[in-house]
Design a protein that fits this description.
Keywords: Disulfide bond, Glycoprotein, Repeat, Signal. By secondary structure, the protein is mostly beta strands. It has no helices and nine strands. The chain has a five-stranded mixed β-sheet, with no helix packed on it. A four-stranded antiparallel β-sheet has the order 2-9-4-7, with no helix packed on it. It is elongated. 23% of the residues are buried. It binds calcium ion (CA).
């Protein structure tokens, strides 16, 4: 079909919210895909990804979660292949809500040469990082008179 390498298959998302769908969604996705999507938040922002629909070719011999053999969606907490893998998903079970810790989420969508399903759609949102402990700012107000008198 020629999706590979097209704008449908490699895309960066930088607006504050948006939708990511498999190529051709809601129709069946093409075979032999190696798609890559990156959601890139500005500094001090994080990304939350929420799946709305999910239907990828199932692996009937699936032993454990993440053992998908045919079609799968990988979600990385950062750059693809090099950052921690949050999960590998296939079948019809909708993945849990996913949050980045680095302001960057990557999705790798792989399909093999046979059996296509409807694919996936997900919504992402960027939000300000929650203030972490190391960013506490301590201010000491002046000691009230009267409390120090003996
Ligand atoms: Ca397939």
């Amino acid at each position: 079909m020629g999706y590979a390498g097209s704008e449908f298959c490699f895309r960066n998302f930088t607006s504050s919210s948006g939708m990511i769908e498999s190529p051709g969604f809601p129709d069946k996705y093409p075979h032999n895909l190696e798609c890559s999507y990156m959601i890139i938040a500005p500094p001090h922002m994080d990304v939350t990804l929420t799946f709305l629909t999910f239907d990828l070719e199932n692996d009937p011999l699936l032993v454990g979660e993440g053992d998908c053999k045919y079609d799968w969606l990988d979600v990385w907490d950062g750059l693809p292949q090099v950052s921690p893998l949050i999960g590998r998903y296939c079948g019809t079970k909708i993945p849990p809500e996913i949050q980045s810790s680095s302001g960057l989420l990557s999705l790798s969508f792989h399909t093999d040469m046979a059996v296509a399903k409807d694919g996936f759609s997900a919504r992402y949102n960027m939000s300000h990082k929650e203030v972490s402990d190391c960013e506490w700012q301590i201010t000491v107000s002046s000691v009230r008179r009267g409390e120090q008198t003996p």
